[in-house]
Fold these 3 entries.
Entry 1:
Amino acid sequence: MKKLKKLSSPEIFLRSGKTAGSFRSSRSVIDKLRAAALIFAFILFLHAAVFIFPASAADSGIVTPGTLPDNLIVTVKVPASTPAGDKIYIAGGHETMGDWKATGAELIKISEYTYRFGARLEKDYEIEFKFTRGDFSKVEKDAKGHEIPNRKLFFNFEAGENKIDCAVEAWADINADGSSAGPKPPEITGDYEFIKKFKSKILGNERDIIVLLPPSYKDKTSGSGETSETEATEVKAKTGEKKLKRYPVLYMHDGNNLFDPNTSFQGVDWGVDEACAKLYKQSAINEMIVIAVYNGPDRIGEYTPFKDPKHEGGDGEKYLQFLIDELMPHVNSKYRTLTDAKNTAIGGSSLGGLISLYAGAKRSDKFSKVIVMSPSIWWADGKIIDYVTSAKLDAAKTRIWVDMGGAEGEEGLSFTRKFNIAFKQKYPGFKNYIYKEFPDAPHNETAWRARIELPLRYMFTRNK
């Protein structure tokens, strides 16, 4: 599989203006007038140039439609039920398609219900994409309103021009017959509860939380099960009531992507609920409570513990405080949890993997199990590497899972490998550390869904 070329961020192509030096006071009035005339003429030239040579996307470092002759052309027909005033976008895993932003690249309307996207690529790529109407709540669906896998294309640079024809059958909010699709009920396996609009004073915002409960949670006849010393005082000894079972807890980021395809990015969820149900049935893992914390508009800021010179961010410490000081107390008061670090895990992918790694290193007194999938180690030039290797992790009490896909780009893979080498050098006797690479795995929910069972088994293997 071809590795994706990582295009530079547009920010680095912004010109840094320098203040022009002032005219020397010794110049004569005539010289000053001449200079002023030259400046005025130059300004007129610049204004004319705007119309003669309109700014192109090449100025931002990205080759997009109209910059050069397109060698990739995607044509799509949309259903007649598509609102006439709506714009059509292509969202995909390439910068010309917006790196999976719902408004990645606007398509050009070439006829009624037919749109075109063109771009010029300069090497071979394998790209996944979908069509939207500007939001993933308006992403394309099949004729029955079901999720569809990401579209895939392999662009062959040597072929010269690649033409792809597509057709959208329906939209997430509009059925194929034109009727309103309406909100879909959650497609979550097992018992679950919603914590709607959970407010955070630390972050100054609110978000939804999904609590996935284990099969035996509502069984009032269940025994004590897993027990920790910190829970001993909570036994209802005075009434003689049988102590109900308490459970380990797994906190996961990007909660809207974990269980339900209707709320998940790109319409594909991790299947954490299904993986847990399967592993419970096999008696492969201990039952747990999964706390799925939705992301929000400031996902980048909240999931990054350090500021990046190009992308900023850096509010990860506040997000960690929110988890520990606001969400945890609420969860522990409402649900039968085991509250000690031994029974508390944290996990996520991409930037969610980055903040999980930071949390495990910074607050090992709260989290002893850390699931780090496809982490953005590259953030802030890999600063997390020095941070983790400078921490004093207890190898006997901490378990860490780190993995990476081989098709996630050279930069991401390179930084993650650097982390793995540095970690093993710093902690040569760290037995509870796993690092795995999956050669053909890309950076998306489909890939994480395919392997989520592995870290769950590693962290919560049932004692037999």
Entry 2:
Amino acid sequence: MGKPLHLSRITLLMRLLMLLLPILLHRQAEAQGGIRFIPWHFEKIEDDGSFGTANYGLGYDHDLNRRLSLGMEMLLGGETDMFTIRYRSAYHFSPNDNDGGSAYFGPNLAVRWLDRSSETLILVPVGFRVGYRGTLPGGFADIFAGYQYQIGAPSKPSTSSGSANQIVGGSYMIGIHFGFGWDKHERD
């Protein structure tokens, strides 16, 4: 048997942080950034008749220039034993250099570990997200909706998993995230 999922999550999180920290610290000196708190993030994972799986977590937002931003999110599933790492980017429609709130659209890509009794599934959700995010310096909020396809979802429920629920291929996500940010020197 392998390590318990929660220990491997911590190890993975530490390795990811050590890998990304130098990149984030360097890029942080060039533009505005923000820490994101994720209290309400819902995704439809299983076809179990529920509204969706509640997730919570942390993230980092970074504005690359006047219109483009990127972000990383780490989510834990509330009702299920699930861990997700998501990269996303966004094109902001506001012409005001992200100094005010703006509507955005962008792709996202994630890796998800879903522990289901006797098996651990690794899924790769790929999709898009549309929303409205406030300006990063100071406090901000982000409200969004999106669609994703979970690559790696089994075509039928596994009898050995202990769950008769089917993993959905295509699913929605909605959420409200909050955070605080800071402004660095001028971006080009």
Entry 3:
Amino acid sequence: VIKRLSALTLNGASDGNCCSCCGVGPFESRSQQTAHYKHHWHTHNLKRKLFGKSPVTYALFNSRQEDDSSVSGSDSEAEENTSNPASELFAAATRHCKAFFTNHAGQVFCIY
């Protein structure tokens, strides 16, 4: 499990100065890198990667955000009432920020 988790985040990058999830870098400073990891674009790409999808570019992410903000409230309410198994799975997978595991000795531990 740890190997799979590190493969998702590192993806072969050993210098730690690039984001293999979004395909950006190298970062000029630690603060720039931290700001990237806190950005909604990085979070969106990380969730896509967990579902086996490819990352989206920053331009595409911004255009989708603009499209989402231009939708009226009545459309979003109607959308919430429909049952979509993929969106329910996505909501369940992203509801908690940590994963729980049990080792052979029966001890439970979690990873944030």
